[in-house]
Amino acid sequence: MSRDASSKGPLRIELAIEGGLAHFPGLAKPLVVRTEDLPPAEAGELERLLAAARIFERPEEPDPPRGAARDARRYRLLVEDGGRRRALVLHDPIGDPAIAALIEALEKRARAAQNERRKT
Fold first, then answer.
1. Cβ burial 13-34 (10 Å sphere, 16+ → b, else e)
2. Which distant-in-sequence residues (6+ apart) come within 8 Å of 81 by Cβ?
3. How far is CA 30 from CA 4, 7, 8, 40, in A?
4. What order do you get walking across the sheet with 11-19 strand by strand?
């Protein structure tokens, strides 16, 4: 599944995570990923995950909280692809496996970026 004809240029993805154990508001900065800044294989994988999750076809809050615990995480996902833009709010546990895989990949990218910053 590839990006459609309205896609122009690189993707920009922003993920902010709120709540969860040991969350400190104001200290957790959102992850911002631009596919143009990634190696081609990683950019292609993110594009594949986004296509599988059908982000632009979903309502803004597709995964309403289901009796979530007070320490449950909330994810704010913003995707920009050419002239298209979609903001979603997701809650733990994420019920859709395609969206869960996307969030997991973005969290992995965030951890890698954090480790890179620590080395410098």
1. bbbebebeeeeeeeeeeebebe
2. 3, 6, 7, 8, 11, 12, 50, 56
3. 27, 24, 24, 23
4. 31-34, 11-19, 73-81, 84-91
Q: Do 85 and 13 meet the contact criterion of CB atoms below 8 Å apart?
A: no
Question: What are the CA-CA distances from residue 50 to residues 45, 79, 101 (Å)?
Answer: 9, 9, 9
Quick check: pTM over 0.85? no
Per-residue pLDDT tens for 6-39?
A: 555 789 999 998 877 655 555 568 899 999 999 9
What string of DSSP letters covers 67-112? S--TT-EEEEEEEEETTEEEEEEEESSP--HHHHHHHHHHHHHHHH
The backbone torsions φ and ψ at residue 21, rounded to the nearest 5 degrees and listed phi first, read: -65, 140
